[in-house]
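Notes from the 1:1 (GR / supervisor)

We went over the backlog. Supervisor wanted to see one worked example end to end before approving the batch request, so GR pasted a single chain during the call. The sequence is below; no edits were made to it. Supervisor asked that the structure be written out right there so they could see what the output format looks like.
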Amino acid sequence: MVHSNITESIRIERLEPPRGKIRVVIDTDTFNEIDDQFAIVYALLSEDKMKTEAIYAAPFFNERSSDPAEGMALSYDEILRLLALMDKPHEGFVFKGSVDYVGPPLVAQRNDAVHDLIDRAMASTSEDPLYIIALAAITNIASALLLEPRITDRVVLVWLGGHALTWPHAHEFNLRQDVAAAQLIFDSGMPLVMLPCNGVVSALSTSVPELERYVEPTGKLGAFLTDRFRDYRDTSEHMGWSKPIWDMAPVAYLIDPNWAPSILVPSPVLTSDVTWSVDASRHHIRYVESIDRDAIFRDFFVKLANFKA
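Structure output shown during the call:
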């Protein structure tokens, strides 16, 4: 079992919300849904708060892909579409990730994304850690941890994964895609900020009329994001329909932690039944308890309106 060598006091210090500009990488299953696209744009439009050094395509498997490998490839292509709309080059910036999961055997996946993450993490320091914004199955990060355990001392992981610890189960999409990888992360001692989906980030919802008012008129990028959102529901009727843009939450936490109030809690035990258990003696993680939906969307709308590709 991989476990960090850092002390609990150092881990808690590392988990303090960041001050000043930070360095980030983004791990994303971008084609799985429609929220990763918003999150990537939000991070890239927040250069005053964070420098995005790389984007990693992550695997996913559902009705939008034939297997995890295709999910990763589709996500990679979607990242390139977004960057093209923003007139940003992708060479040396976007990396293909895992084509399979770590799974119960804990088999590290070797690929460009994992190796780039290891290189960037090992070039970081405890005083200037690399922040990992994780918006997908935690496969790429778990693989990097298995291949190079020393990265735990040089990173802070900010993951949208699981449901609230009070939820009766943890069968959230990102987590359940690779449960063994998630167990590895929760057990490892890696500094972790957890943003649960149902019960917390589920409050981060918007609607077609709101996006048509504040996003679509901003240009080709805004039109693309609105079309992705509008087309997600296979109907011409959007009256009364809203949807969470889950993946914006980790970015928002790093921009202004006041928008995502959090506490320190013992790292939960993720059981084989994919439920939460408690052991108060375990190391601490930072746990986001609520989301200021209005402040986050207001900030995103303003930044997008000011963007000129």
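Supervisor's comment: The mean pLDDT is 96.
Batch request approved.
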